[in-house]
User: Fold these one by one.
Assistant:
Number 1:
Amino acid sequence: MADGAAPVLDVRGLKTVFRTRGGEVHAVNSVSFHLDPGELLGVVGESGSGKSVTMMSLIGLLPSPPADVREGQVFLDGRDLLKISADELRDVRGAKIGFVFQDPMTSLNPVFTVGNQIMEPLVRHMGLTKKQARTRAAELLALVGIPDAEKRLDAYPHQFSGGMRQRVMIAIALACDPDVLIADEPTTALDVTIQAQILELVKGLRQKLGMAIVWITHDLGVIAGIADRVMVMYGGQVVEQAPVKELFANPRHPYTRALLKTIPSLTGERESRLQVIEGQPPILSGAPTACPFRARCAHAFDRCSAENPLRRAVDGKPVGRGHDVACHWDPEAAHA
Amino acid sequence: MLDARPTTSGTAKPTKALVQVRDLKMYFPIHTGLLRRHTGDVKAVDGITFDINEGETLGLVGESGCGKSTVGRALLRLYEPTAGSVVIGGVDVASLDAEALRKTRPQMQMVFQDPQASLNPRMSLADIIGEPLTEHTDWDSARKLARIYELMDAVGLNRRFANRFPHEFSGGQRQRIGIARALALKPRFIVCDEPIAALDVSIQAQVVNLLEDLQEEFGLTYLFISHDLSMVRHIADRVAVMYLGRIAELSSRDDLYARPLHPYAEALLSAVPEPDPNLSRSKERIILQGDVPSPANPPKGCNFCTRCPRVMPICREVKPDLAEVEPGRMVACHLYTEINPNVAGRTGPAEVKEPTNKETVK
């Protein structure tokens, strides 16, 4: 998290639009963020907030049409990923950026052995021979905590449990020693005790390998446990961004505040009634001209429907480096 | 809000049990080979016993595959239970014939997990909510429509939506439709099978608050099945923790969350990530090793013995019974039963100490 170190990944003003029969859906709207070496950035948001689409836009995983990555720059290693050719991008995926998806069943190919699937990127991107790749694959399986790794290479995905499959997915993502690992809700489909295992594994791997991680989730509990920094997304935009302790201790955006209150606690005071965020998430048709949260916001005023708020720093540091929020409302002024 | 309800006063004074489940078993047969011979059973629910008091919410928690949804379905006889009895409002639902069962259906209803899959996409909202009325009453259409509107008001759906179809609604609204349908016949008992699992965090709270309001208004009794332990802490009065087809612990909410007794309940609670960075980084976690064994081939003895951090030799031999180890707290674990080392097979509730009790557990 050291300030000043060049970020491994730098995303600026990313804008992704889906062209549908009902018009354009602005799924990602001017999203900017960076990822420092060795850092774990948590991305929180509800379904439809644009968190997955943002990450898939970065590495060209969205089918086009309907998706159109319209604006923005994505710097990795000094290159803009949105400008390079499809072949070059394929080398970046897998070799430079590893991806772990939510559902470990559908993201593994059921007709190939697990070993085969781990070896594929090794042969493709690292130019290893089959034999070398197999040795490396066994190492990787052992690294992610699968016992009897050498033998398990010849097993098929259906012979693994959900938690084990997610370990295999992590092994594949780590195969080429990527600089960046993007994990899209990697533990959402798993039970809590298995989730705890995977979180421990990732913490251990970070210490061992030191890669930077983007962790997408809707679970604030998971984020609280593993992230260094958190980015909250709503309606295709970044609404708040801060170091993890700062965000939980001092949330600024009304959405973040409400979100933290809607989760019942496991240990704290038990509220007799849950706080709710009334209404529904927005439908992102048309270019945004107003704050996406205004209809559900307790603090909304005239300016919120007239002007989409830009991210502004709340602690004097540059936007993205400290604590920033995209909101017209000022809690301090309101209290005064 | 729960405390304001007159019918229950937590666990301090047990009120009348509306639902009594005794030694319920639900096995799904496995047929293999060319002749499809019956070669074994998936013991989804393997002998569970509990009561749900009138007006109470019993939380049923556990990981996927532990049999919690099967319990809910077997209770309403959406499955034919293999053994055991389920008495709801004085009637043994498990042994009723088809016609008698149909007559008792109005008092027990279900809210399903996936509001997308449990609503017929070709039926309008009014048809969906009105179907139970058509099935179980001889009301004319005006009376039915009045009831449908009443239900839509109760769950917070605008009356104008009556002729719309499920795809026009969001997940949270669809779940409201499912709840309105369950309420149509004025049931006393509702099984809520993961009613919020498919919803976004900000919508979950809306649905949970609605369920609580309805409980207060209509005096409903809930079985609330969920894997979300913090939400169960919010809504339930008592909580049963299931593991591999059996109840590991059944305690009042406050007791369980303050001090879980069964090692599995303890591990499960410690695995829940807390939305507090200071707490979640300092908390000592119990990380269970391995996966849940197959319910087709559960381990001998205690079914948690393969992963239990406090396993003892006896656990691999003898299945512990669910016994009251403290007032109002039922635990199935050898740690809390007095074991006579000479009679390794003997187990029983802590209070039962007569030497004549030589009963060994199968």
Number 2:
Amino acid sequence: MNIWFFKLTVALYLLGTFKYLLFIILLRELLAKIAFISLSAGFVLHSITFILRYFEAGHIPVTNLHESLSFFAWAILGVYLAFYWRYRIKVLGPVVATLALILMIPAMALPKEILPLAPVLRSYWLPIHVVFAFLGNAVFALAFCTGIMYVIQEHQVKSKHIGAISRRLPSLGVLDEINYKALTFGFPLLTVGIITGSIWAQYAWGSYWSWDPKETWSLITWCLYAALLHQRLTVGWRGKKAAIMAIVGFFAILFTFLGVNLLLTGLHAYSNW
Amino acid sequence: MDLLVIGINHKTAPVEIRERVSFSGEELGRSLRKVLEHPEFTEDMILSTCNRVEIYATTRDPEMGIVALKNFLAEYHGVSLEEFEQSLYIHSGSGAVRHIFRVASSLDSMVVGEPQILGQIKEAHSLAVSHNTLGIVLHRLLHRAFHVAKKVRTQTKIGNSAVSISYAAVELAKKIFGTLEGKAVMLLGAGEMAELAAKHLVAVGAQRVIVVSRTYRRAVDLAMTFDGEAIEFDGFRESLKEMDIVISSTGAPHYILGPEDVVGVIKARKNKPMFFIDIAVPRDIDPGVNEIENVYVYDIDDLQEVVDANRDRREREARRAEEIVEEEVLKFYHWYTSLDLVPTIVSLKEKFEKIRRREMSKYVASFVRITEKERKSLEALTSAIVKKILHDPITFMKSPDLNTDTAEYVNAVRKLFRLDAEGGGQAKKQGRDEGV
């Protein structure tokens, strides 16, 4: 049942992304509206998918790669919808939709069976740790998207090419503001994610910190964002520097999330997928 | 009856000629009535702006009408016709419809897409309304023109991009800052263009204006108009760090601001972005300043490039607008031709005949037995009734003394009997066009 909803969700995301891309080319408001509605509807179905899967599995469904990718995409869209409510930036839609789709497609290809939960994961810390970590990551994903847009727009304005690309992108001021807001929301979430993980580790593995690759990389990620936040607040790092940091930071997140699982081994590896 | 427009505009005549045949505001009402004193015309409207002078009229005889309008222009202004006849353009029928639609949509303007013209047409329209010189045709024509203009504005991006240096500067400032709410602007040197740009910036939310000029008096005067402050030229560097936008237009022979000045300023501002608009020639601001992060410098050529690109874009959008206009001309013309007497009488007859038949067949069907003879006599009876009912109105519509108001009556008949809503014959097509 949840698989069926999952497929429907992907179909709606696909439709939304497609319409959004058409919107960037043609700039017809109607297309953006259709895309936004498909995406929102997709998000609702996606939520239902999780609820169904939760009841079928008996635990929060974030324990294999299919589930994590899907949950990440869901969190990104959720954060985007929350930001959209505040900023109404239409062009962010196509970028976020594409990103969500990129996460959903491998999730669709990966094995989707519900497997029995590894004993070590049987803890009420699982949902707490995972939800905070993913929400933080999702907020930073948004900062990544606006960071890319900022770099492009900044280049256009600086080199005085005020053409089709520049017209489609939001202003530098707004993009930088979102970057800052994302940082102020994302950083506490990430911090709480790491702290709860550490507490849970104490219960599960008997030590708060054991330098397993995932821990190490999440610390690196945390340091990157901490540095950015610090520089922003003290010497007023903003604009291009902040945008590039947001991009770099997100690659660190992706590596922590995917690279560690796929390339390295450690305590966090619970399933082959 | 035919629709006519005769006019002269910035494309066909220089201002020396245009000003000689233009109408001033106070006399316009009188001029409108004067056109109607001619027996040729039934309705008229005059549009007189700095770029165009146009008379719209409906006439019974287009050829005579054209001559009469030409002579009216010459006699009214006391100018001999030869002086401006070459510059006149004349459109009639659907050509005239197309013309006003294009003018209202700003496709015929000097700067394509500028919105002023629509307001000017609306003024001309309301003036004609208050002097009672509009009849059904021009009235509807104008309303359709407003509708077309709105459609063009919403469905194309013809008016979206800045096509003047000062607006381009505002557009760029928005690209950089997002909102200009509360931003501080410095006018470094006071020129007309700088003043205009500052005015636009204030209009979209810029709050603080500081004027710097080598002549302090001038600075104070200008600052007053913006409710701002004036400072001496020598002291402007100290205030720079509080400024978001600097519009520079001094007459200095060399750069007055270099990268080394601005690096310090931007540091003191904690990297808050700055936008320098350098419209001085020779330039005031070293182009090297643009290399500094979070600082953007646009000189007059850069701004001109933005303007040119926007103009090209408007031209492209104009092509789409022309399609919309064409569509609407067709729609209007459909309605317009239906105002002719003959098709209206035909559809009136058709409608009555349809009703008669429908009622007949209902009636006949309700009888089990009805002889052929009875049916025939019923047909004859109902036909006679319809004919008698229609006789008087049709005779009235055809009577020669109706001449001037034919269109009004035809329109009234079409509305009374809903000939356009469900009507037969050729009137069917403009049903959806009704009611605007």
Number 3:
Amino acid sequence: MIDNATIEEAAYEIMKKAAIDIPEDYLEGIRGMVDLETGDLSAFVLKAMLDNYETATEDRRPMCADTGLPRYWVKVGDAARFSGGFTGFERALRAATARATHDVPLRPNRVHPLWRNEHNNNVGINAPEVEWSFEPDVDWIDITTVHKGGLFGTDYRMLFPGDGIDGIKRFFLDTLIAFGKRGLACQPAIVGVGLGGSKDTCMQLGKQAACLRAVGDRNPDPKIAELELELKELGNSIGMGAMGFVGSSMVVDCHIEVGFTHTGGMPMSVHTFCLSSRRATARIAADGSIAYRSDPQWFTPYMRRETIEWPSQRALDKSA
Amino acid sequence: MAEPKGLRQVRLKLPASPQDIAALQLGSVVYLDGVVYTAREGVYERVLVRGEPLPEGLCEISNANFHCSPAAALEPDGSYAIGGVTATASFRFSKYMAEWLDRTGTKIVIGKAGMPREDYQKVLSPRGAVYLTTVGYGTGALLGRGVKRVREVHWLEELGIAQAMWMFEVENFGPFIVDSDLAGNSLFAQQGDLVNERIARLYDGLKPPALHRYGETDDRKREVM
């Protein structure tokens, strides 16, 4: 039985780690880009960011003061048992958010959309978001937090089957150029692309593709994996680098996630995760021990529902 | 510290003198010493729209306005812990700047992503002011390390941590890049022009979209079909 206090402790720790320690995969990605960058200004920006990551870790202070919109993705094993129930779980995540906001400190970003009042702790109505998923045959819980900026670099468009791959490239370019100017997207970034689903699913898939997959990870469908690399190259050929200065550093990696969609449409979303790609994951084992890492490992085969067919319970009972 | 390849480095004492400001060149890397204050829409509204007075002595203490919200927390002993410091996008504050510069005598505006070139020509440079952009964005930990002390904080209760006016005593505070000079030039605009020259060829060979869509045009009379 996993205690509710353990869940709060894990969530509190990942809030800190995400804010302060740049994930290794992203750091390696940026190091690789510095060597290729020929634009003086863009190269200076990348080197300053490398200094910044180091300073953050040394001083234990956030690498970026814009906390973005801190949120959680939770994966619960079928066999995991926890003392506080699901509502207790969510309360623990809210408590961890409020405490970490004060202790790190993180900037309290969350305000009411109309009245602009806040609780100075990143907690409020429908905030932080908590998304749930499940995993068969395991007894652990994974909690991931991501602090991603909330203003620029994300867009959605309804494309149609006739638009094809050209349409995907066109919208990809449109978004990166629009938000890359002056560096509003805080590039070079991990770019997530959602394809298919309904509008909300499409946004969700693209967001998760950007935030929950590590640099170098490829989609299991080889043709989609190829498209990921092609879009990455395309983004880096725009002629724009960090802060929108002349250069080549736009896309550290591109991740695509797909969902079955309406037969007449091909909705697409684009999401840019920033130069301070803040994510951290905690795995709580059944005995309450906690292990930390920076790769969320969110997209398991079950997560993509690749392995699930549709036999009815009656048919399963009969064969048993 | 990063070695800027071919970029000039300048260390500037605040309040900055007119000579120091006139000497800044586009693309130079700047570090600051002295006092910097933060102000964004919350403070601008209080002073310029609601007519509340400026904090006493502001004009003498600092002439550098940072468009910033720090990651800060109030400690039990009444002091403030400053974690990271990162700028917010400045072009949203365009409409306030002329009056704000007149009221405060501010000569250095610091923020994210610059302001429109026209603002430099019509608002900042005629008032002897220039714009410095943060780098990245943003180097929150480097800038946080440069803040040595919170000198004063105003409107904290009314506006919250993100929108309050913070007066920071800073040392070797940076890096920033000079985006505008007293001639009204803009580094972002110059770089944007160079990038724009190459954009059209990126779409060569891509077939046109199946339908026109809002977002691709700002003409509301056009049909989606």
Number 4:
Amino acid sequence: MQLDRRQFLKLTGLAGAGLLGAGALTPAKARLGKGAGQGPFAEGAWLASCCNMCGGQTGIMCQVVDGRLVRIKPNVHNPNGFSNISEDFFANAATEGAVMCPKGNAGIMALYDPDRLKTPLRRTTPEKGIGVDPGWKAISWEEAYGEIVSRLKALRESGEAHKLLWFSEDHSFTHVQADFCKLYGTPNYNMHSNLCDVGRKASFKILMGDERPLIDAINARYMLIFGWNPLSATKWAHLPRIVTRGIEQGAKLVVVDPHLSYTASKAHEWIPIRPGTDGALALALAHVILRDGLYDTAFVNEWVTGFEPFKDYVKDKTPQWAGEITTVPAERIEKLAREFAGTKPALVDVWSGTHHSNGVYAGWAIGALAAITGNIEKPGTLVMPEAKGGKHIEVEADETAKNTLKQPRLDGGKDRWPYFHKSGVYTEIINRLGDGNTPYQPKMAMVVFQNLLMSVMGTKNVEKALKTLEFIVVVDTMMSETAEFADIVLPGTTYLERYDLNTHWVTWPVVGLRQPVVQPLFGQPAESEFVCELGRRMGLKEANGNDLFRLGRMSGQNIEDKSRWYEEWLSKELKEGEPKMTLEELKNLPGATWVSTKGTRYHKHLDVIPPEKMADSIVEGGLVFSKKKDGSKDKPLGMVRADGTAVRGFLTPSGKVELYAAKHEGKKNAEGEPLKLLPEYEPRQWQPSAEYPLYLINWKEASQTHSRTQNNAFLAELKVTDGLRINTKTAASLGIRSGDWIWVESPHGRIKMRAELTEGIHPEVVGTQHGWGHWAMGRTAKGRGAHTGFLAPTQADPISGQALNKEICVRLSKA
Amino acid sequence: MIQTTATRPSITAGNLPSRAASYLVFARLMREAPSTDLLKFITGQEVLEASETEKVAVQYARLFLVPGDEAVRPYESVYCDALTIDTSTACSPYFPSSSHKISLNGYLGGPSSTAVREVYRQAGLDLAPASHELPDHLAIELEFMGRLLERRQTEQGKMFFHDHLARWVYDCLHQIKQKTDSGFYQSLTEKLEQFLLSEQALFST
């Protein structure tokens, strides 16, 4: 189609007529002051906020000149970015200054990314699939809301609200989304965590009743890290500082990892290990410690349960036994055990190294090393954080919603997964959608900042699953691979354009505010406001008739302006939560961060339960529980010590650290197998074979977050490790040279990658940084590296629902 | 078919309303995909299948709204500005300890966007709240030119044309022509380029 010249000229004479519509310019209300066109680092306002380039929420200061963000710096008032221990923070932050990671620096690029989505889009190509052009066209917000709401209404009105699947980030505006799902009536609200660390959560919950103990690295004298890269995979920007400071103060760092990670490269010792065998190594270490009487008798006697059965179990888990399994020489295991047990305080930890089928038990076995050496809740050990912040105010669903909330979750929920996490089990949802083995067929999905195609392993399975849904809405700042499967895509906001409260991952109560430092670039609503608008248009109400999405939670008045409505929502959460202040008051604190002066507390298991709490409690079998209104037993409060005092203890069934889990008796995992009572080692399910002889692993580094930041040109320029790392000996045996293009093949698919030869990877293992291989997203991301998801099955650990991101075997050939 | 060569400027200096209208028409066509009525008018077709309008809308999105091989970002900041990052405070294995700054081109919301907004405000105009667009988008800069000429503010128009539009618009139009397969947007771009060249000639006298 071409423009007609004569008509065009005629039209120019008719420009005032209706065909052109209203323009974008309108009479100005105010004039800008001077200052436009100044240099990039001119003065301006400095606004405190929190980063969200990853889930770490590091404190940041944002310099805004004439409405433009020009610089991001660390926020020295926020412990997250300095230290997770209060003594260190209070004494040194002001003089030393805080830090950010490169992703934090690069946040400006995310805000001003030229590939950002700017308007709602609707697909015109009905067919969906990888490589299918959706044929996007712009639609108005009104049209987008209209269609989404009419589909949501139709589901709810026909009693099918549970057929809405909702996927979201796990640390951003989750309360408002969860509440929407509850009032709407779907039990299928899911979050990212089950791709991340629910395996670790289960391990430590079994062990000590706390899902996320943190390392007090700065006070440690020995650090034994399994499958974690804290110096580079900086979930919290203070990690490199506290680990290296610990080393400066005399700590020894030992890293167990199949790959010479950045942390391993800075360690005193790197112990390359065969993937999936960390549990065996931990058990052998325990064997030596117990055999040689190197354990902490006092701690074990009072605070550990199941010591004898554990000791019996590890009796034959000798260094020789583990040596064959792990490839770590027996004498090295002996030495490591003696070093670890002989140095106090020592810490031991594991993170995403447990993304394999023995992962939860391995994590438990690793945690057991802390238990038998008494390295729990002391300075320089594993510490249970007091993460108290804003309070999620409970809402009650109405009768319509209650009916569909009764439906089973698509992933089977806690009935299926003994350590089910509220984030759901993505892999199970994908598999059930794909094979049709479901109690009901979901119809609609709302996907908020989740790129399922790149983050859930088994890419072809994810593709198949998404194709079964009638209608998909994706909210994202970028055209992710998953967005390309959407029927409607809505432009989201970056963390620099919206609010959030961050209860930080330090060991004492701290709340950092994330606030909009600039207005959303394209006038789009913040996600909280989008959900609010849906709620309003749906007319969703609480059981008591409250208009949740209109009612100002502080003023009790209806508030039309959704931004103000959400400000009141946050104020209420802060008021009812630990800080007991309004949003405005939090904003006015230095660095917009509330820092409890109570500080880090150790030995919290010795906290005496206050008499007034004891008076209103139930004591049963030496354990203390709170009471429900009807007088029945509620939550565990603690336990009674031998001397009769009631203390917090550990929030496990025994009140102690558990090396033997009696609670597992008679329970089964998602595959119907009995739960193990001890942290047993079992070979992971997928072992190398003659056909697929190599383990394939992946890892994270400071330069990128998951599969989310690869379009950031600044980060891409920093370092591109998008090739496949191969041990030089392994490569030589295959005739592969550095820089060669090679096929990486599994039974599930094959991808092409560039060979990177190194001594820094176990000879039986090849690996790459996760997140590359985008085929959408934007000009920088697209076409770099390869996505290992094509090579993997879609599988979860049957205990916790943790996605098994690292259980793949492959073969290599020259391309 | 449009004749792309040997076209002399047909809009004279004296014909300000017509020039202003041209800016406004081009602004509208660059701002969003045309409606069916507008499309009928400018293509001279009395009957138009709905699918034709949709086709142009998809072409518009492919060019200006979604990333991809055909994507062009019609913003002055993308063509003229560099975004500077101060890396001195990063705790990263990748940075040396010394402070340094890194500049990258091709980003939205650069100093140009603030600068043009300031010019609009000096002229008593601002972005409408419902416009959902950045101030240095091609469509907005064209619309501003149209508004100035409507008010016969030719001196301001000349200044804005030289200070802003002419700095980048030809590069941008060149990219559009290179990237798009759309006949509609090829010919629209041709016409806009001719028009702007004729404007440049007028402003240079």
